[in-house]
Amino acid sequence: MKPLIAGNWKMNGTLVANESLVKAMLDGLAAQAPGADMALCVPAPYLAQLQSLLNGSAISWGAQDVSSHEKGAYTGEVSATMLKDFACRYVIVGHSERRQYHCESDALVAEKARLALAHGITPIVCVGETLAEREAGQTEMVVKRQLAAVIHAVAHCTSEIVVAYEPVWAIGTGKTASPEQAQQVHAVLRAQLAAATQHPERVHILYGGSMNAANAASLLAQPDIDGGLIGGASLKAAEFLHIVASAR
Ligand code: PGA
Fold first, then answer.
1. DSSP letter at 177?
2. Residue 208 in contact with ligand 1 by CB distance below 6 A
3. Rounded distance, CA 91 to CA 2, Å?
């Protein structure tokens, strides 16, 4: 299985900046045969732009959230059908910023994952503990509870999800989990997937949280780290490509 390096632009970008960033990535890739699958998860208003810039390239695109409803009177929401209209391959669900700032529960995240799969979009399911939870020795319990809700909702489709372990204390803070800390949690998640699907090895388990060009290789060398979900470093073409190159 090829590693997957997915960028999460969060709420960043402009039409002009996106075009130069994506072009710089594509130019860089022309000189470097990628050893990893790649994706960029961008703000919904830019999906059409990314579709036209990336169509036919080695980079897939996706969104950062999806509604848990099919359609209707849900002002401000974006449905899975709409994401499919722009040929999204991926959608991030349950990012800690959504769990924290938008009060998303495990059940809501699980429903979003289920709906994405039902529409042929791969959910990148984020799990991760806060610093207080880690210090209280609750890391395993928290990530297992978050993943269990999704496994319960998607059932026999569990092998089709992507999981991203993102310790909340490492996101955007410059504090990365050590490769050993990350691997320990990834192994727990792999074991949980193994109990739920016959093909746990098919599920990419990405690490996210201050992954950058300097620390990517040691994280990606861990046996259960199958790629990365990259925030800040995905806004710089050279940095993103360096991470991709580390994932051979
Ligand atoms: P970061 O964000 O790489 O900027 O820490 C990762 C994420 O939140 O997905």
1. P
2. yes
3. 19
- Look at the chain and report how many structural domains it folds into: 1
Query: Looking at the annotation, which residues are catalytic?
Result: 95, 166
| Nearest-angstrom CA–CA distance, 195 and 152 | 12
- In terms of Cβ atoms closer than 10 Å to its own Cβ (0-12, 13-18, 19+), residue 139 is buried
- Cβ–ligand 1 distance for 172 under 6 Å, the answer yes
Which distant-in-sequence residues (6+ apart) come within 8 Å of 58 by Cβ? 29, 34, 38
Indicate the top mutation candidate among 166, 173, 215, 234 to test ligand 1's pocket, ranked by most ligand atoms within 8 A of CB: 166
For ligand 1, whether the C-beta of 231 sits within 6 Å is yes
Query: Is the CB of residue 121 less than 8 Å from the CB of residue 82?
Result: no
Dist. CA 214–CA 243, nearest whole Å: 8
Ramachandran category for residue 193: left, alpha or beta (phi over 0 → left; psi -120 to 50 → alpha): alpha
| Distance from the alpha carbon of residue 72 to the mean position of ligand 1, in angstroms | 32
Query: Which residues of the chain are modeled with pLDDT < 50?
Result: none
Cα torsion 95, 101, 102, 105 to 10°: value is 60
**Structural domain boundaries, residue 230:** 4-246
Q: How confident is the model over 91-130, as pLDDT tens digits?
A: 999 999 999 999 999 999 999 999 999 999 999 999 999 9
Query: pLDDT tens-digit profile of 43-60?
Result: 999 999 999 999 999 999
What is the per-residue pLDDT for 248?
A: 75
Task: Kindly report the CATH number assigned to the domain that includes residue 72.
Answer: 3.20.20.70
DSSP code at position 193: H
pTM over 0.85: yes
